[in-house]
Amino acid sequence: MKLKRSSRLVDMTAYLLRHPQQVISLSYFSERYQSAKSSISEDLTIIKENFESQEIGRLQTQAGAAGGVCYMPYMGLEEVERLLSTLRQQMTQKNRLLPGGYLYMTDLLGKPDYINAIGRLIASVFINEKLDAVMTMETKGIPLAYAVASQRSIPVVIVRRSSKVTEGSTVSINYISGSSKRIQTMVLPRRSLKENARVLIVDDFMKAGGTMKGMTSMIQEFGAEVAGMAVLVETKEEQPKLVDRYVSLLKLTIPDRQETPIIENGNVYDWLPKQHVNPTKVETKDQA
Amino acid sequence: MKLKRSSRLVDMTAYLLRHPQQVISLSYFSERYQSAKSSISEDLTIIKENFESQEIGRLQTQAGAAGGVCYMPYMGLEEVERLLSTLRQQMTQKNRLLPGGYLYMTDLLGKPDYINAIGRLIASVFINEKLDAVMTMETKGIPLAYAVASQRSIPVVIVRRSSKVTEGSTVSINYISGSSKRIQTMVLPRRSLKENARVLIVDDFMKAGGTMKGMTSMIQEFGAEVAGMAVLVETKEEQPKLVDRYVSLLKLTIPDRQETPIIENGNVYDWLPKQHVNPTKVETKDQA
Q: Of the candidates A14, B48, B88, B157, which lies 20 to 30 Å from A262 by C-alpha distance?
């Protein structure tokens, strides 16, 4: 179809948002809209400026005949603070403390709007990292893992506590739970991970970090590599953690004999890249 | 900020796609862009035409001073067939059959691109239904449930096989597994569902439908209502099912002594609404 600029802008924006972290050639858009590459380049300049000024994300463009464009989701600092502030406020409501030092988060983790925003934030931290897969342990981390993986168009692998008939042959390892010091088992289907894959570990809650450490062992077992670790909430109390170099969005303290948890920001601001993307050029004429 | 039309189109498209099934007032956009409502209406006409011609979704608009706009994700028939055809092809690969009549789908369910597309398809089926929540049973249905719920901005509630310390008090029911005829238990946190809530049940795989039936009982236990049921794959063999009026995307047959499963389309085409959205008007002048 031949489309006008206004129509191209709408369709191209929708297309880019649905295909994050995938390089799309100018030729593809040029054919899709039956428009010259120079017009497409101008469109992309407009989209790029808006994505960046509205902090929707980054557009990385490669010049030349084989040139292309790649949308990289990135959350601006203002939205980061708005998200963390909302989560802090929600999590410090009464009646959230559960026996054993846990926090009731099921309602928050049930909301796709929160989950998707958290996913975009975690993806923003790792915007410059090569990632091949996102790993989590069943069950609560699963939606977060998908939210991150969606922003990168990479697969999720789910570690389980026991093997299932629906998963074929599995690799099983033992690990020591950090808080209870008990030996536990985790399993992963053999077909899940390729050798040398760069894996981002994502989970909802970390006390001592035993599960996280177990997952790093699992990754090594497959000959793959830990590209990073991110948790939504870590506890302030259990120190030192069994893992280091992890990103936490929030930090939980449970005060003695009080009903209201204290939630602070985690270390995520130390991790957010300042210069997130290499400077890029768009092959284009002056913008109309 | 004051923005030009081209910039408004990019930002508004991104904003609408990120806020599905939410009514956004013209005043909001008018303030956001410091532009007259008449200009915003014209923008929306352009976006609406493109969303519909490109089958990105529907824009439902309400005229008048209190008017607003609502983006409803909808997958066009062409994309539906492309998606189902891809899934059929992937699922009929060798080595997918597992003991007990199960199909190995872990790799497919691990891919956010597939999961999100399947979620948009299921959301399209229920585009005209009032929905308050999406329910699934752990574990494999979870990503599908979030993918559907994301398209509607409604929460997900996850039924578990046993209660967890992190969930507070729970409601527990017994149900009979359809295929094995064994009595099983499912639990849901008390705070999960409100009375009269309209709940869409989503799962990845259905043999006799025992789990589905269990979830409908759980919904009744909360005084809520089943708004619909959808599964990715149903088996052709187990008949009749314990539930009726469910949507299936694909149907699996396991031929005797063969290594390759047969996958056909399910009943989804019977369910996709032909006239998906009521005719709507945009309050606007003639388009520039």
A: B157
